Amino acid sequence: QVQLVESGGGEVQAGDSLTLSCAASGRTFSSYAMGWFRQAPGKEREFVAAITWKLRSYYHDSVKGRFTISRDNRENTSYLQMNSLKPEDTAVYYCVVNPVATMAGNWEYWGQGTQVTVSS
């Protein structure tokens, strides 16, 4: 059974950094895309970042230059390094895995989410 488990969320001040991790189990995802979505209170879920198995990365415009996605195929894990955090980054962050990277929300596998709260 495939399972994605996020960790690393928490409450920080504006300008701080956090790194989210996503540990995947149940199968090998080395040829899949890995990514992150987020959902803020009262807002729709939105794409944050993705990385293909060839290590090509994509970002939402609002996080470009501040967030960095990476992956470790040996560990079946993805990471989201978040710098210069802003209050508007406050959301539940979801780890996702899919055969291909897409900004649409129809990724095949989803984690349970981890809360990130940024206070001003």
Helix share bin: under 10%
Question: How many strands?
Answer: 11
Mean pLDDT, all residues: 96
**Stretches with pLDDT under 50, minimum 5 residues:** none
- C-alpha end-to-end distance: 40 Å
Order of helices and strands: EEEEEEEEEEE
Percent of sequence in beta strands: over 45%
Largest sheet: 7 strands, mixed
Q: Which value, in Å, is the CA radius of gyration?
A: 13 Å
General shape: globular
By DSSP (H or I, 4+ residues per run), the number of helices equals 0
User: Given the helix and strand composition, which structural class is it?
Assistant: mainly beta
Overview of this structure, please?
The structure is a single chain. 0% of the residues lie in helices and 51% in strands. With 120 residues, it is mainly beta. A hairpin with a 5-residue loop joins β5 (46-51) and β6. The strands form two sheets. Strands 2, 4, 5, 6, 9, 10 and 11 form a seven-stranded mixed β-sheet that branches. A four-stranded antiparallel β-sheet has the order 1-3-8-7, with no helix packed on it. The chain has strands at residues 3-7, 10-13, 18-25, 33-39, 46-51, 57-59, 67-72, 77-82, 91-98, 109-110, 114-119.
Brief summary:
The chain has no helices and 11 strands.
